[in-house]
Amino acid sequence: MFRERRSRGWPELRRFEGMETKRSFTVDTAKLQHRYQQLQRLVHPDFFTQRSQTEKDFSEKHSTLINDAYKTLLAPLSRGLYLLKLRGVEIPEGTDCEMDSQFLMEIMEINEKLAEAQGETAMKEIESIVRAKQKELTDNVSRAFERDDFEKAKELLTKMRYFSNVEEKIKIKKIPL
Q1: Fewest CB atoms within 10 A around its CB: which of 29, 67, 117, 134?
Q2: Kindly report the CA angle at 117 between 112 and 119, in degrees rounded to 5?
């Protein structure tokens, strides 16, 4: 079984074959999850415990690649960054100077509200604001990719990165000490 698949080059292991060829920002998450599960059933290390070391290594490597691809494609921010990278566009760290001051003020205000938030109601309000902003940005990123406007996508994904950082701060603040 392993030799047959290997001799054909395991074409089904290309980074989520059939999904990446379109290079669309929009992803049907149900189809993505289904394809992920199909691929994991082919290569998951649990199915290779009684195989040769070469087969085990192959399984482990490809299972990791499939996990990484799934995580990348599942989240809008990482998916967008990946699509930009495929087109030779990268967002360097520390792009604050390129952001408009109004946006940076908005982020600062949200961070201040978060720092001052005491009750669950205040936290939920901030979460709601951030979630709405991320949804709006995700929709705009999708439109930018549809128009092949990679500079706009880059700008929007940079903003998404800021809101993603705020989401992480929210999660940390929710953890009881």
Answers
A1: 29
A2: 170
